[in-house]
UniProtKB/TrEMBL annotation, chain A:
SUPFAM superfamilies cross-referenced by the UniProt entry: Thiolase-like
Protein name: Acetyl-CoA acetyltransferase
Classification via InterPro entries: Thiolase, Thiolase-like, Thiolase_C_2
PANTHER family tied to this protein: ACETYL-COA C-ACETYLTRANSFERASE, NON-SPECIFIC LIPID-TRANSFER PROTEIN-LIKE 2
Domain Thiolase C-terminal, first and last residues per copy: 248-379
Entry superkingdom: Bacteria
TrEMBL record, chain B:
Alphabetized NCBIfam families for the sequence: PRK07937.1 (NF005924)
Classification via Gene3D superfamilies: 3.40.47.10
Native species: Streptomyces chryseus
InterPro entries registered for this protein in UniProt: Thiolase-like (IPR016039)
PANTHER family recorded: ACETYL-COA C-ACETYLTRANSFERASE, NON-SPECIFIC LIPID-TRANSFER PROTEIN-LIKE 2
Protein name: Lipid-transfer protein
Amino acid sequence: MSRTATGKEPVAVVGIGQTKHVAARRDVSIAGLVREAARRALDDAGLDWADIDAVVIGKAPDFFEGVMMPELYLADALGAVGKPMLRVHTAGSVGGSTALVAANLIAARVHGTVLTLAFEKQSESNAMWGLSLPVPFQQPLLAGAGGFFAPHIRAYMRRSGAPDTVGSVVAYKDRRNALKNPYAHLHEHDITLEKVQASPMLWDPVRYSETCPSSDGACAMVLTGRAGTARAPHPPAWVHGGAMRSEPTLFAGKDFVSPQAGKDCAADVYRQAGITDPRREIDAVEMYVPFSWYEPMWLENLGFAAEGEGWKLTESGATELDGDLPVNPSGGVLSTNPIGASGMIRFAEAALQVRGQAGEHQVDGARRAMGHAYGGGAQFFAMWLVGSEPPPG
Amino acid sequence: MPGLPGRRDVAVVAFAQTDHRRRSDELSEVEMLMPVLHEVLAGTGLRTGDIGFTCSGSSDYLAGRAFSFTMALDGVGAWPPISESHVEMDGAWALYEAWVKLLTGEVDTALVYAYGKTSPGEIRDVTTRQLDPYCVAPLWPDSVSLAALQARALIDAGDTDEPALAAVAARSRTAARANPHAQLSGPVPAGDYLVRPLRTGDCPPIGDGAAAVILAAGDTARRLCARPAWIRGMDHRIEAHSLGVRDLTDSPSARLAAERAGAFQQPVDTAELHAPFTSQEVVLRKALRLGDDVDVNPSGGALAANPVMAAGLIRIGEAAARIHRGASDRALAHATSGPCLQQNLVAVLEGES
């Protein structure tokens, strides 16, 4: 080509803000909820509304609150008046995709500093039935996401020969990690493995305690380039790689257990970040695990374990907070699920780890961390890899 | 005029759209979209697998179901998996996201598409759900009523009058006679008042449609298109949501977007404005400083066909298509979203002589 780009601007996270995630934030409007997270991200970055060049906002389907294109109404609350405001919607992966779209604005040098935010205020409506509106001539998604994903989990169990206790091990770990995260929705101080295993069966093999909650919450990040990081009061998290991949919902040959789009997305991120052995080179993973069994499934899909071996990694304790590959030190989606924000929380928690600001759930010495999100019928993937050092070059 | 120094050159190299119709009961969104995707790809000789990035715009509230865009993705043929994203906005903003992706240098081509079927629902009711959910939406103020408030403010300010609005409608639909995709063209009566001072003739037709665009960078664009429509600049801005705090006779967001897109650096010969109501063209002409020498909406604009979520992308496509066929050298394309032009996008396109 005649004139190639002069190289991308390195992108860094300099501000992170979350709300305390809960079942119902009846004390605030949707605008109040998002502003709370945005204000915290600005404070963390030592910036104010006027320092922001553009706002990129994401959330899951509009039916989840009953507001069509809510960014129009949220422009004022997010200080976006007179600025560009972009609304991303890529199903459950949206929180991750939104951050990546915002990062590209910096990388392409269109803007210097961008506020990105994702939210869901599930208490305004009912997500499960929002997912279940009847559409003529199409397969109904009855009883929400759990009913959709349970058969794929059973396929994984059959294929891998995993013992049926692995899911409860994941849930027990994540719910205990959540106790160390002040923003997590579920704080079950009396949780035991036995209680998880005795909880009611919802969608066999997924039990009540192996399922994500319905949360109200928002997560915001301030992204900037090299010049912006020099002014930041706290250590930045540098983006070493980011990618999105999509594949169709249903087609002959689709592997719901380990979708090709997830493998391709991870491979792209690792290539950008120069990762050749993710298990050794990545210090912490925030992966999108809405149902416990998705931890071993994604461990394989993302290349942390060989096919059929993911459950062994989980069972060995490697994914515990003090293991050699901590997965979801924040407590994960299993402890906090404001749907549209869940992907961004994964990305932000990965950034917190490499900034050394994860508090009680900090992974010691985390230098490289991965944020992962997926959505739709296990067909939309968004991932990024962040590091404590700037990317080379 | 070249683009910004150091910024990659990106162009619209192909555009396709449906024939826009009042109803398309026999077609699903995917079935409506598929021929457009095939046409736009055929225009460049590219296959789905050759595309570096795909981005679309649509609305679940029009489709009446969550994740409606996933069905469209099945139609795209996202296998092997593709790099893909979606905005819950008019496709013009999907094009913006794709343009930024191309500017990063990560990819050389992008497919952008948008679609909307307004026929299954009552669009005037549906768009009320865009408004402040606590204080305004419960009153169900519909889009025509809100546009009428804006038209009334313009008339009261002396910026226009009803005959001038009728002239905008007549000019647009006369121009649309040359547009085979238009839903409404030729002599259309001004009609009765729908909401004073707007008559049926001042309002867009309600209909279904889809559109698609292919973007390419640098020499790839030159290889795919004899006369690429180079995007010299693109920007979008949003205003306050509450109508009570806005001057409805002006569009500071459109003006700022145009300024940032470089629209005022040199005159344009063509402008494709996304003005669903005649009165909104008056606002935009003023904000965008378009003189009588500019050919405004030679396609007929949204007054000739207004497939919601695609109509803004179609403005960019129509402006690009005029450059492709040598009918324009420098064109402004505009898209809008929200009540009374709350959010506006401006792109400046140029052909090389």
